[in-house]
Amino acid sequence: MTKTAAVTGATGFLGTHLCERLLADGWTVRGLARPTSDRGGLADSLEWHVGDLFDDRTLRSLVDGTDAVFHLAGIGLWSADAATVERVNAGGTRRLLEACRHADVDPGRLVFTSTAGTRRPSEDGGVADETDVVPPVGAYQSSKAEAEELVDDYASAGGEAVTVHPTSIFGPGDETFTTQLLAMATDPAMAVYLPGGLSIVGVSDVVDGVVAAFERGENGAHYILGGENLTLEQAISRIAHCTGGHRAPLEVPAAAIHAAGPVVETVGAVSGIRVFPFDREMARLATKRLYYTSERARDELGYDYDPLEEHVPEAMAWYRSS
Ligand SMILES: NC(=O)c1ccc[n+]([C@@H]2O[C@H](COP(=O)([O-])OP(=O)(O)OC[C@H]3O[C@@H](n4cnc5c(N)ncnc54)[C@H](OP(=O)(O)O)[C@@H]3O)[C@@H](O)[C@H]2O)c1
Fold this sequence. Notes:
Layout: E1 4-8, H1 13-24, E2 28-33, E3 47-50, H2 56-63, E4 68-71, H3 82-102, E5 109-113, E6 127-128, H4 138-156, E7 161-166, E8 168-170, H5 177-186, E9 192-193, E10 197-202, H6 203-216, E11 222-225, E12 228-231, H7 232-243, E13 250-251, H8 254-271, H9 280-286, E14 289-292, H10 295-301, H11 308-321
Parallel strand pairs: 1-2, 1-4, 2-3, 4-5, 5-7, 6-14, 7-11, 8-10, 9-13, 10-14
Antiparallel strand pairs: 10-12
Helix pairs in contact: 1-6, 2-3, 3-4, 5-7, 7-11, 8-9
The structure holds NADP nicotinamide-adenine-dinucleotide phosphate.
């Protein structure tokens, strides 16, 4: 018999790739879509449940009797204010877990997509694992940390749930991080890049990790799904090398970014206008090397990732055509 999955965030970047994979593996897929969501190429392939994370009846019908619930819906500070981020990421997770508890037929395992950002290395250039839980910086991280606790409670109270923590996801369809990275590597007009480093993971590797967490993860466990740890300069150079593009020549000094934090914070406090989604703490973080290990996922889930170069051609083809 075919298995049925419920996917929140099915219309987003990661959700679209996950749904394509589940369909290719023979699953029946139910997707949560808002009335305004762009269903893209999946419009005719999914069973759509129309509503949002605050529509309890829609959520219950979405998860009812499914074999798996993949909770990907979330929002970041680039597209919403702090209160909305908190409401959607933490409040929305609470509502979805309530729907799982009160469905007519209990759903199977829930896989929650948090972020690696709730963990951090203890020193610049060190490598963080799942145990390196740190005080959240900004509304996005704190809302994800709160949602993680709710999911942990659900798992320890008789539910089945696993949390995955992707690092920075790179791949076709991502109009934020991937687009910026490709522009910095290929567009001579983008003459600067930021200091600091990060773990970059291809979207197909994250999808593999999410599915493996459903199949083989330990109940209540957390798994970092990362990729290569690179400075931004290394990432941009390697993409430029693959594409024959222009490497951005100038690094913005860390001091300039640190200085921007308080300015933005003050403008926000005085005017009430959200100028830019970061304050002084976020500015400091933006210049650090935030590196991660996915060893636990490798050992327990069989997770693996490809080097950045493997993911560039598909992302580049999408970038050029969009
Ligand atoms: N991309 C990354 O690098 C990265 C890294 C770590 C973790 N994550 C996490 O992975 C998940 C997916 O990320 P993504 O990059 O695919 O994000 P995305 O492209 O922005 O997609 C977000 C999805 O959430 C949905 N959504 C937002 N608010 C909602 C609401 N109130 N009710 C129902 N659905 C709502 C969106 O629906 P609409 O289509 O209607 O907008 C969309 O389907 C998120 O939870 C994110 O925090 C992402």
